[in-house]
Amino acid sequence: MQYSSIAALILTVALLTGKPCFSGEIAPKPVVVKSIVLDGQKIAPGGAVAEIIGLRRDGDGFLSVRAAPSIKAAEIDRLDQGARVILATPDDWDAATFVGIIYAPAVRDDVPLMETCQIPEAPPYVDGPYTGPCRSGWVAKRFVQVLAD
Fold first, then answer.
1. How far apart are CA 139 and CA 27, in angstroms?
2. Helix/strand number for the chain, H first, E second
3. Which has more confidence, 46 or 7?
4. Rounded CA gap, 105 and 71, in Å?
5. 46: nearest Cα among 83, 97, 82, 99
6. Which helix (H) or strand (E) holds 38?
């Protein structure tokens, strides 16, 4: 079984039970997609295309994707420098240290990421916990740069 398959299984069990899988871990928290609202009307999808940046050349070479917004949460995946993700808009960008992301395990250049991950870019927009088909998790905000919103 691959590393990401084991991590996905651990996250699934933890999400279904609402409890951490290992002592001392933070319980998983789903990534929630919330539409942008202006004057009571949903005007845009609750996500922006972003890129993983700023990994140190002499570092591990990856960014840990966590099951919850904490370094104490289980690592469920790893992303490389330059990986494209959908950033779930946080409630308070300035206060956030972790941000929810949605990402495809295999990216196709001919299909936009929002389409691949089934985040509608036109009404009706989808709100609520992200359930797929792509993967989701939490990363440190300092490694995410918004490309288009």
1. 15
2. 2, 11
3. 46
4. 22
5. 99
6. strand 36-38
129, amino acid identity: P
The yes-or-no verdict on residue 1 having pLDDT over 50 is: no
Type and span of the H or E element at 64 = strand 63-66
The phi and psi torsions of 62 (rounded to 5 degrees) equal: -150, 165
For tokens 């790893």, the residue is: 78
The b-or-e profile of 79-117 (16+ CB within 10 A means b, else e) is: bebebbbbbbbbeeeeeeebbbbbbbeeeeeeeebbebb
Cross-strand bridge partners of residue 101 = 87, 137
What's the token pair of residue 69?
A: 């917004």
Q: What is the DSSP string of 80-144?
A: -TT-EEEEEPPS-TTT-SEEEEEE-SS--TTS-HHHHTT--SSSSP--EE---SSEEEEEEGGGE
Rounded CA-CA distance 90/79 in Å is 20
In tens, the pLDDT along 107-148 reads 777 888 999 999 988 888 889 999 999 999 999 999 999 997
How high is the mean pLDDT of the chain?
84
CB-CB contact of 85 with 103 (8 Å): yes
